[in-house]
Amino acid sequence: MNVSAPLKASDFKSDLKPVWCPGCGDYHVLLSLTKALADLERKPEEVAVISGIGCSSRIPAYLKCYGFHGVHGRSLPLGTGLKVARPDMTVIVAGGDGDGFSIGGNHFLHACRRNIDLTYIVMDNRVYGMTKGQPSPTTEPDWDSALSPGGTGLNPFHPLVIALASGANFVARAFSGDIRGTTKLISDAVNHPGFSFIQILSPCVTFRPEQKEWKSAIHAPPVEATDDPARAARRIMTDDGFNVGVLYRGDRRPYKIGDGVEHKTVADLEQEFQI
Amino acid sequence: MSDQIKIDTGISIALTGSGGAGVMTAGGMLLEAAAKSGFYGLQTRSVGPQIRGGEAAALLRLSNHAVEIHRGGFDILFALDWSNFSRFAAEITLDENSVVIFDPEGGEVPEIVSAATKNIIELPIKKFASEIPGGRMNMIALGIVAGAIDLPKETVLGLIVRKFASKGEAVLEASRACLEAGYKHAGSVANAPKLVSDAENADVPRWLITGNEAAALGAVRGGIKFAAAYPITPATEILEWLAPSLTAIGGNLVQAEDELSSINMIIGASYGGIPSITATSGPGLALMTESIGLATAAEVPVVIVDVMRGGPSTGIPTKSEQSDLNIAIYGLHGDAPHLVTAPLSVADCLFTTQWSVHLAEAMQVPAIILSDQYLGQAKMIIDKPADVAFFADRSKVEKIDTAYTRYALTADGVSPMAIPGTAGGQYTADGLEHSVTGTPSSAAEDHHDQLAKRRRKIEGFNYGTHWAEIEGEGDLVIVTWGSTAAPVREAAELARAEGISVKTIAVRLLAPLRVEALEAELAGARRVLVIEQNDLAQFYRYLRGHVDLPADTRAYHHPGPMMLSTTEILSEIMKEHRL
Ligand SMILES: Cc1ncc(C[n+]2csc(CCOP(=O)(O)OP(=O)(O)O)c2C)c(N)n1
Ligand code: SF4
Ligand SMILES: [Mg+2]
Q1: pLDDT tens, A15-57?
Q2: Disulfide-capable partner of A7 in A11, A80, A268, B578 (CB 3.0 to 4.6 Å)?
Q3: B19 CB near a chain A CB, below 8 Å?
Q4: Domain count, chain A
Q5: Runs of H (alpha helix) within A54-175
């Protein structure tokens, strides 16, 4: 391969065969992600994809980038540590709705607040896929399951509004089946400074077969992205949940990372203890 | 006789008063004045339940040789008032030689004090202070005590100038006048013990430092460049020292939303090739354990300092206890070999932390350091610590030509790590069991190979002689760990001066336990005493499970909040000796 030849999406794909069920929406997310990385002209070694636990969280190993498949719910702190310590890396954190909004919910709030320059992709299938079909925070209240017979009766969590209210700098919704749109949203998110959040509706064909219908429900947002959080919130709160595109693009100052310069030596620091 | 000077127990002083009386300021200046005059010493703080304000006691011990812990009794008690004295009474043991100074305006002398000693001196300190514009009782007390024990007035004056000059001429003048007044009345305390200097000490370069500061400094000396922090008593000072210091040396500290986050932040940073640390106490360590297992499985080096306090649960946040040994050693699920170390003194917080950074990085494993509230918050005069050559020096791959296998099965178990950014080294670090490449695998062979590799790394490592500090000879052997090493070593030294032979083994490397080395050290032992500060005798049971101990092995232990004292351990040694 000519070193200067631009990389293709397939150059970002590893040889490992995904564990996902045939038809799982996550295959499409993987494809869009590799296309976005090719479009972004990043080298695979300059990108790290960090995840937690779940079907969706298996994604790092299917890429040729650096990856970290951590524990359930802690992908954002892992990615945060990496990005602050290594600001030269492009950090993409990815996972599921259970991983990100339930066990990892507190980290989600604070990652939005902290506004570190990284991209967080949640493959939302409104279910715990890996543990075989329990309701997640985004599941409809009347969805019946063995663990919550008759449904949870609980209001679904609204990740986009929460992200906005907590200070995320870029908020978008995507649909896994819309590869072109998702690819573009991922590369826009990576390019946008600060914390970017994309909720990708990604059907679980095994435990939520009715989600196959999502492809006909999806539509583009009626208006352009706004930088006014109040307007964005109103739109997100009142739309039908199938509006895809950038919903908010802010200009909050990203987290301040140290300049990496050695202003003092350790010997200088020791002076304060001298009698 | 020079021996006698060595075992001279020094002067122990307690300053007590209600909130805002400034006993800690006075105590701190007394300690610093002693340091400047060539003495050694330490100061601890005992507080009531209030976060700020409320009663406080400054407990000092000054000596002409290095001291690591309170003796267990006090020579001088200076009570600015008696409010809530009962809270400290258990910690401030007095005997018939103790000198008590108090202000009659501050209430009546408590029963427990008047029963202990007849040397009770009444001084109208409040009145003295009121005669000086802006006068403060604590500065008068400082003058009285400093004068009584023979600390040079010029030295204390020098400190006052340095401390108060920035507060304006009036404040400075008031403090100076108070100090003069104090020195003037010091004569009323004629029977106080005096500090007699040892000329040899005069030119030794010295530091004034707490164990938490020493641990933080050890971390940066070892090469730490990233920390994640969630505040918790009594570990916060480590994090607060690191915050500006790491920025100054080109690193970073991030305040996390909780300990689940802080541990993962340091794992992420270390995966990025940057040596990383966090500090916490029991409740935080409990939250971190799942992810410490991740660092073990994914082979990412991290250092966690647990500054132990009374447990379980929220326990006693401001008091020391060695009760996190079990969680540190056994707290991880699965077979998860990792390192557990414990500093043996305030100064050793520096060495042990620096060494632990080195070990964690060399073996790509998590290291848990068990410090405690006593070591962490005691302020101590120590000889300037020597530079030791332990640095973060991780085995990395620089250039990759062929396929990279992150978890390759090497002879020593350590597999060179590809740092993100290295072309051709891309791999996915994983807490799922994996093959040599990092690919998730549930195959028996991969599981067994990876378990064995991770065990081999830390079992086969050459820890040198640093696994323990060993002193003396004798068929009575005391095995101890962590902060309890200080009273054990001092008691053993006092026993030796009485002609009793006793050997002490203070274990610094708790896991992996150096079983063979320990058994070799115990070879001639007839009786073994295992001493520690917790209720369940955790270390004793741990040793019982792994080490071939003589039949006559006994545990001496009690939980916090009281520290084990030199005198109580000495009496245990005497008991053994008489057997
Ligand atoms: C601490 C912990 N608790 C529970 C689990 C079990 N678990 C694994 S994946 C998962 C839920 C995953 O759901 P989601 O993040 O939505 O991912 P999906 O499988 O739907 O892609 C749970 C509960 C675990 N691995 N760790
Ligand atoms: S269970 Fe659902 S989410 Fe998991 S792989 Fe199958 S389809 Fe995808
Ligand atoms: Mg899900």
Answers
A1: 999 999 999 999 999 999 999 999 999 999 999 999 999 999 9
A2: A11
A3: no
A4: 1
A5: 75-85, 97, 105-114, 159-166
